[in-house]
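Please fill in the sequence for the structure shown.

STRUCTURE ENCODING:
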């Protein structure tokens, strides 16, 4: 059995693992237990009643969190000429075309989000095996394949969060920092939950949101009553 440190043991005190807490109380508990020496991320996880192996049960989307994520997002953009200049002016850290393909194929991936203009997708398609597993592949469904590269860059840096359900039906995302106020975290969590609800696939049967939990980067998870979030 893995050893549990004193800090984690102390953080778990007062949390009933079998109880479902209202989202307000859960956020308060998680913030109080985020005692690491850095500003911990606050994360929310959903267990969904879907089987993403079936195309009609895939849950995927993007949401702009009202209070941002608190993270510095590095953006790469595949674009040429005027669109490339627009991306740079909007704050993209990496902009290119064939040269960017070579950089990525060479193993240099120093960014967190990838955006591309539609005409660049045949080029970007060569990188599917590299970007796909890292969930970095541009996709029009989440606004990362668009002629409006400036808007996409600003959205990515301003709090846009992509989400995609994993094989076991788990979906999770960072929704802020421990330094955020409780109200700011609640607004972000409810905005994220609303986006997940709206992304419910046609093939989903039975209970869509089975379980919800909130945690910090190095703190214990708190189980949440789904109805208090949705």
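FILLED IN BY: designer on duty
SEQUENCE:
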């Amino acid at each position: 059995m893995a050893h549990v440190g004193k800090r984690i043991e102390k953080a778990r005190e007062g949390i009933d693992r079998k109880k479902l807490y209202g989202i307000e109380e859960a956020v308060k508990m998680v913030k109080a237990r985020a005692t690491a020496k850095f500003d911990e991320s606050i994360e929310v996880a959903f267990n969904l009643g879907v089987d993403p192996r079936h195309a009609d049960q895939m849950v995927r989307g993007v949401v702009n969190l009202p209070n941002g994520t608190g993270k510095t997002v590095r953006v790469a953009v595949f674009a040429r000429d005027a669109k490339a200049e627009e991306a740079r002016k909007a704050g993209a850290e990496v902009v290119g075309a064939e040269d960017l393909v070579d950089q990525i194929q060479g193993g240099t991936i120093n960014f967190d989000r990838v955006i591309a203009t539609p005409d660049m997708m045949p080029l970007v398609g060569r990188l599917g095996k590299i970007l796909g597993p890292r969930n970095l592949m541009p996709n029009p469904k989440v606004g990362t394949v668009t002629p409006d590269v400036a808007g996409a860059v600003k959205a990515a840096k301003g709090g846009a969060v992509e989400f995609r359900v994993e094989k076991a039906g788990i979906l999770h995302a960072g929704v802020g920092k421990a330094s955020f106020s409780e109200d700011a975290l609640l607004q972000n969590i409810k905005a994220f939950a609303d986006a997940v609800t709206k992304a419910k696939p046609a093939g989903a049967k039975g209970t869509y949101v089975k379980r919800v939990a909130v945690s910090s980067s190095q703190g214990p998870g708190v189980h949440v009553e789904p109805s208090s979030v949705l």
